[in-house]
Structure to design on (312 residues):
């Protein structure tokens, strides 16, 4: 029986002209290559434990126990970190609507957008549109590269490895905790506390939609310096939230019109900001949440920057 089947296959193959045989071989080769490429990321997956950040949030006190301030963020690997269940649902909805509305419904890539982006890149000989999913944006945060075609392919490879080792919720949490939010502020928790003086879990629609707009261009949209630009971006975020069904048009209008108060630009630092950042840069990965220094707060305010950097 098996010999008969093999004979039939051989006859069918021999009936194909050489051109069709080459086409079949090419198709099978490409199929095998595609399967191999998509299987490789599962041999080198990136897991959530591989992306653990140093939770920087640390309060500094002077020699008398008086507060000097709290540093919440220095860079994406040293910032205030919170799990996904401690992030306002309004912000989760806002960032999904603004950056990747189908995040929970596609893989690491959105193939239609990728093909469109590649065609545009080939025609223009440069990256024209990003077509980046949240997974791809996280890959770019982890390994920043110039906007070139080889860098885009590397970004795709890293995105596949992230998707191979992490759940959607884990990817979203890692992404939100690394978002550039203006200046040296990284991650939503640090941004919520620095801009509004509250944890990320308490953000309302107005605050969440404003912050969700910042990662698009964190320097130009910094609300301390470019309030009008940040509000224009908020309009886009609210519009997308309405389109995705998270809020109504009336709620969007109310959120945009709501008065939002920003904290002063000291970012939670009462005295000696340069000194505190210098010390923060020298902290080991395992550090206490509260550190007492040799500074005298009242004296530092009177004479200027302190020079002693010993930590008690």
């Amino acid at each position: 029986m098996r010999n008969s089947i093999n004979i039939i296959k051989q006859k069918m193959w021999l009936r194909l002209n050489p051109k069709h045989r080459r086409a079949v071989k090419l198709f099978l080769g490409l199929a095998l290559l595609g399967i191999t490429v998509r299987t490789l990321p599962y041999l080198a997956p990136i897991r959530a434990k591989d992306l653990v950040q140093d939770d920087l949030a640390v309060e500094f006190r002077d020699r008398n126990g008086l507060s000097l301030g709290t540093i919440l963020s220095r860079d994406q690997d040293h910032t205030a970190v919170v799990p996904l269940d401690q992030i306002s649902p309004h912000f989760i909805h806002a960032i999904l609507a603004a950056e990747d509305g189908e995040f929970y419904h596609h893989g690491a890539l959105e193939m239609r957008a990728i093909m469109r982006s590649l065609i545009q890149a080939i025609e223009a000989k440069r990256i024209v549109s990003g077509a980046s999913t949240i997974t791809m944006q996280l890959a770019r945060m982890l390994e920043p590269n110039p906007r070139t075609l080889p860098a885009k392919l590397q970004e795709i490879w890293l995105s596949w490895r992230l998707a191979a080792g992490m759940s959607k919720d884990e990817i979203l949490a890692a992404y939100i905790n690394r978002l550039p939010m203006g200046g040296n502020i990284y991650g939503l928790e640090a941004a919520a506390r620095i801009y509004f003086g509250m944890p990320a879990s308490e953000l309302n629609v107005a605050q969440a939609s404003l912050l969700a707009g910042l990662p698009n261009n964190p320097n130009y949209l910094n609300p301390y310096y470019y309030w009008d630009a940040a509000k224009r971006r908020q309009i886009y975020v609210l519009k997308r939230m309405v389109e995705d069904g998270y809020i109504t048009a009336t709620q969007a209008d109310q959120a945009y019109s709501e008065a939002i108060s920003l904290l002063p630009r000291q970012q939670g630092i009462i005295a000696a900001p340069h000194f505190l950042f210098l010390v923060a840069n020298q902290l080991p990965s395992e550090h206490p949440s509260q550190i007492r220094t040799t500074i005298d707060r009242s004296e530092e305010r009177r004479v200027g920057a302190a020079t002693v950097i010993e930590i008690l």
